[in-house]
Amino acid sequence: MSRNNRKKKDDQDNWKSRLGTVYSTNPDFEYDTEGEEEEETLPVNQQDLRVMLDKKNRKGKAATLVTGFVGTDDDLKALGKMLKTKCGVGGSAKDGEIIIQGDMRDKVMELLKSAGYKAKKSGG
């Protein structure tokens, strides 16, 4: 590959990294690099959680889904870990929801209520 062709290829690959970049001729311009601010975690008694059974996108296998958590990712993961440990199953906690493998709705409801959360069953 010649030097000019390599340079053109590098320029084509780098254009994506420049998307969203602001250019200004103002010498006093300051680029705002702040992303989304994480929400503070609500107290346990103010959390309004929904517990439901979900089979979508799981090849027919059941999973218990806990939604409605308001707070930081670390607190969400801590709650998810507690639920997974107490239920003795796997799962994940991301994007504001906790997924517990299997139909564990009753046990999850019991655990959330004993921890002081307001939880309701929703869905079928």
UniProtKB/TrEMBL annotation:
Keyword entries, A-Z: Initiation factor, Protein biosynthesis, Translation regulation
SUPFAM superfamilies: eIF1-like
UniProt KW Metal-binding keyword: no
Gene3D superfamilies, per database record: SUI1-like domain
Bias type Acidic residues, positions: 29-41
Entry-linked InterPro entries: DENR/SUI1_TIF, SUI1, SUI1_arc_bac, SUI1_dom_sf
Span list, region Disordered: 1-42
Domain SUI1 residues, every copy: 50-116
The keyword Lipid metabolism appears for this protein: no
A Pfam short name: SUI1
GO biological process, one term: translation reinitiation
Gene Ontology molecular function: any one: translation initiation factor activity
Family, as annotated: Belongs to the SUI1 family.
Name used for this protein in its record: Putative translation initiation factor SUI1
Species this chain originates from: Microscilla marina ATCC 23134
Lineage of producing organism: Bacteria, Pseudomonadati, Bacteroidota, Cytophagia, Cytophagales
